[in-house]
Structure to design on (225 residues):
């Protein structure tokens, strides 16, 4: 069963603009992770945010977590054409560390 | 460089045939996973292994089998019992705990002849 749901399903922006994508989940989590997947390739881990954290940064990436709303957002600032990819959130249930539960992903297109 | 190698990149299966997808890692990770990815869907877990000689079924294990005889290797066999095997298969690994970040190979795309 899918725990995370990304929103929007697809996003198209111009280079230099910011991109925001959201992830909602249903039950208490241990942590939430964001991954990127370029077309035809494997996934690459971007950021892990724990349930007791509210915000994390990595370069041009900013992730927030709101446990009261059971949601997270990924912000990519000053986007580049190379950011074009699908972005997935994955959650680990608080009571079950055995697997990640994956969302369906947001497809981001950054136009030059 | 450390990483995960999946082979082959493309694979074709004939009706009634079993095929094996290779996954090798040199990251010294204890845990390894197999996922299936279909268009428009997220990743679905087929099998996972936390330690050598031990593995567990995931959400969609029917028609698949695995082995974990070495820490570095976690091959997946798609058997003839899997009636809809056309998909993109991804292998991943992580350090010990399942809630740790996973490292992925570049996948194998399986198609039916």
């Amino acid at each position: 069963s899918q725990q995370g749901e990304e929103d929007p399903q697809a996003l198209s922006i111009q280079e230099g603009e910011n991109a925001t994508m959201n992830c909602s989940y249903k039950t208490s989590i241990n942590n939430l992770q964001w991954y990127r997947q370029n077309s035809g390739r494997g996934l690459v881990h971007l950021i892990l945010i724990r349930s007791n954290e509210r915000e994390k940064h990595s370069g041009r990436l900013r992730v927030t977590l709101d446990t009261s709303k059971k949601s997270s957002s990924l912000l990519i600032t000053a986007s580049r054409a190379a950011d074009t990819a699908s972005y997935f959130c994955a959650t680990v249930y608080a009571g079950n560390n055995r697997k990640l539960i994956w969302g369906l992903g947001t497809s981001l297109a950054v136009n030059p | 460089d450390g990483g995960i190698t999946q082979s082959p990149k493309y694979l074709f299966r004939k009706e009634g045939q079993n095929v094996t997808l290779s996954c090798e890692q040199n990251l010294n990770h204890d845990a390894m996973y197999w996922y299936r990815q279909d268009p428009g869907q997220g990743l679905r877990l087929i099998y996972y292994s936390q330690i050598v000689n031990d593995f567990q079924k995931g959400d969609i294990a029917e028609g698949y089998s695995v082995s974990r005889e070495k820490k570095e290797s976690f091959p997946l066999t798609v058997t003839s019992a899997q009636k809809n095997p056309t998909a993109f298969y991804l292998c991943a690994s992580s350090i010990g705990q399942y809630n740790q970040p996973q490292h992925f190979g570049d996948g194998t795309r399986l198609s039916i002849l």
